[in-house]
Amino acid sequence: MDPYRDRMQRKKAIVDAAIARADRDQGLLLVLTGNGKGKSSSAFGMVARALGHGMKVGVAQFIKGRRDTGEEAFFRDRPGLTWLVLGGGFTWETQDPVHDAELARQGWERVQEMLRDPALGLVVLDELTYPLRQGWLDLGQVLADIQARPPLQHLVITGRGAPEALLTAADTVTEMRDIKHAFRAGVRAQKGVDL
Length: 195
Ligand code: ATP
Ligand code: MG
Hints:
By secondary structure, the chain is an alpha/beta fold. Helix content is 40%, strand content 17%. It is built from seven helices and six strands. A six-stranded parallel beta sheet has the order 3-2-4-5-1-6, with helices on both faces. It binds adenosine-5'-triphosphate and magnesium ion.
């Protein structure tokens, strides 16, 4: 008896059973949160995957500050992709909270259109936690719109400090943990890595 083979065979049986159990299709709500790097870049990796399968994709960025990113340059005009930069493409931090809140609400109306469109197989709401934490968007309304989306539409939400109710509603939650970041050693944001 080879103990290694024996152990691997038992492990394989467990994995096979778990795979056999997971036999449903469902539009998933994924939340990528935490202080570590990798939330948005993971979301854009899923955009590439979905487009690669010929799916239609919607992206909405609730940006803190306007920055020309590689992902926007690469993805923006792809067929099958709708890319919204909410807030009119300028910063939210206008020192005018009433105006910022109004922009966020107008932005959410455009997101609602995406969340009602069954043709979109994947929707990404990048940095949605920011306007939520600022109180510009109503969490109850956001959760209701999320729940009411087409049953097979996947939805990815990124941003630090995701509210507990969003984590509860989600199917898959990943917390990026900040162990080290080059910025703290004095390295500025690098093209191809950070933007
Ligand atoms: P990325 O877009 O690289 O996946 P992210 O979405 O996880 O990062 P955000 O909070 O959206 O993180 O911040 C985006 C920018 O801030 C990126 O340039 C990223 O490298 C940088 N960043 C992310 N986490 C940290 C950190 N812990 N310290 C310093 N800079 C960070
Ligand atoms: Mg991000």
